[in-house]
């Protein structure tokens, strides 16, 4: 009787996941409301509209069949790659970085779309590759090229954080595809040996971020100000926080970017360890669901895609948390669904939409669906 009252498309949605995403997003709106001193403007209201629109996008993407994702993987990669070249030629400059294509009514950051696109593309490549060739050179250089070209273009913008996430998503798929572990060990050793050269090629502000990460106390009122104030805000929150709207670091403007990159510090000051554990637990549950979708997938493409998208979401929140706690250099990665801004919300919702699409196909193939 209950099934007959609920339309089949609605009943097929993963409601537990949607409620979890809604809980994270709603908590983010509360934090942004507080960061503005108890006002819906200028951040919470805009973020709520973006969240709703991109959640609708995710629900729309969930209706796409897995076979369609396989068909569009390479064309999508090609289109986004052309857009990245377009950024170098015609891109709009904001904050000293050239990362956007401005079409008048809409401004697009192609590097954000590349995060899910690289996962789809590399997964499609390995799905087409005969299993017997997975441990041959044929399985290595095309994937390295697919990953390396967009990473190099994004580094030119410059955007180290996004470049690392694109590389992380792509190489996660290569690892899940079964490439020999010795390749990653060798690559890690080679990267360590080349670190001095790579460090010298970074922009000055990127080098400063690395140096401040190693010793933030060297310039606490200058280059180390962000991370120093972030640690103070998080530490002052204690177990249960100072209370809603009672934060001082953010409200007195001691904490820079308290509504974007360092929104976790804003939250932790008012909600304390309990609020932090809620957010971390919610994201871990979301990633757990994504990994379960990957393990239940019927095809190699779906398994690799779901696993890669799960790790993309993990990289988002993991890098941000390490960044605001001083465990990693500040690379400009926001906390998804919580930090103010549409780019990260869009990317995560695209990832969730594709994951829900794969989950729908998994359940459609299950007995009794």
Rg, Cα atoms, Å: 21 Å
Low-confidence stretches: none
Averaged pLDDT: 87
Described by the principal axes of the CA atoms, the overall outline is globular
Label the structural class.
mainly alpha
Main sheet specs: 3 strands, antiparallel
Helix content: 55-70%
N-to-C order of helices and strands = HHHHHEEEHHHHHHHHH
Estimated share of beta-strand residues: under 5%
Distance between the termini: 16 Å
Trace the largest sheet across and list its strands.
Answer: 1-2-3
- What is the number of strand segments? 3
Q: Helix tally? A: 14
Write out key terms for the chains shown:
369 residues; mainly alpha; 68% helix; globular
Question: Can you describe this structure?
Answer:
With 369 residues, the protein is mainly α. The protein has 14 helices and 3 strands. The chain has helices spanning 2-5, 8-11, 15-35, 44-61, 66-90, 110-128, 141-155, 160-177, 181-201, 204-214, 225-237, 263-296, 300-324, 342-365, and strands at 92-94, 97-102, 107-108. It has a 3-stranded antiparallel beta sheet, with helices on one face. Strand 1 and strand 2 (97-102) form a beta hairpin. The chain starts with a helix and ends with a helix.
Blueprint of the fold:
Blueprint: H1 2-5, H2 8-11, H3 15-35, H4 44-61, H5 66-90, E1 92-94, E2 97-102, E3 107-108, H6 110-128, H7 141-155, H8 160-177, H9 181-201, H10 204-214, H11 225-237, H12 263-296, H13 300-324, H14 342-365
Antiparallel strand pairs: 1-2, 2-3
Helix pairs in contact: 3-4, 3-12, 4-14, 5-6, 5-7, 6-7, 6-8, 6-13, 6-14, 7-8, 8-13, 11-12, 12-13, 12-14, 13-14
């Amino acid at each position: 009787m209950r099934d007959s009252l609920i339309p089949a498309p609605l009943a097929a949605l993963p409601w537990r996941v949607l409620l979890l995403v809604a809980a994270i997003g709603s908590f983010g709106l509360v934090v942004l409301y507080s960061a503005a001193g108890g006002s819906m403007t200028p951040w919470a209201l805009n973020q709520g509209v973006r969240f709703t629109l991109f959640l609708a996008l995710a629900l729309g993407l969930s209706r796409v069949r897995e076979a369609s994702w396989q068909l569009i993987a390479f064309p999508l990669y090609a289109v986004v790659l052309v857009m990245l070249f377009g950024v170098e030629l015609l891109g709009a400059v904001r904050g000293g970085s050239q990362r956007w294509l401005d079409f008048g009514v809409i401004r697009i950051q192609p590097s954000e779309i590349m995060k899910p696109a690289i996962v789809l593309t590399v997964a499609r490549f390995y799905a087409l590759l005969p299993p017997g060739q997975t441990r041959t050179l044929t399985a290595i250089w095309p994937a390295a090229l697919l990953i390396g070209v967009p990473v190099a273009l994004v580094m030119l913008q410059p955007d180290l954080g996004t470049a690392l996430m694109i590389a992380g998503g792509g190489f996660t798929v290569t690892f899940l595809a079964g490439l020999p572990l010795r390749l990653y060990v060798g690559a890690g050793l080679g990267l360590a040996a080349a670190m001095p050269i790579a460090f010298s090629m970074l922009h000055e502000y990127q080098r400063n971020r690395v140096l401040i990460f190693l010793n933030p106390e060297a310039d606490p009122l200058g280059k180390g100000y962000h991370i120093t104030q972030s640690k103070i805000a998080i530490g002052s929150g204690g177990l249960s926080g100072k209370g809603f709207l009672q934060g001082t670091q953010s409200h007195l403007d001691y904490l820079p970017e308290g509504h974007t990159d360092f929104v976790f510090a804003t939250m932790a000051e008012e909600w304390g360890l309990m609020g932090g554990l809620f957010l971390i637990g919610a994201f871990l549950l979301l990633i757990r669901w994504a990994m379960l979708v990957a393990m239940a997938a019927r095809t190699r493409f779906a398994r690799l895609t779901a696993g890669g998208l799960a790790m993309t979401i993990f990289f988002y929140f993991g890098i941000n948390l390490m960044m605001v706690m001083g465990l990693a250099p500040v690379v400009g990665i926001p906390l998804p669904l919580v930090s103010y801004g549409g780019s990260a919300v869009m990317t995560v919702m695209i990832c969730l939409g594709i994951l829900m699409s794969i989950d729908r196909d998994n359940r459609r193939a299950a007995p009794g669906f």
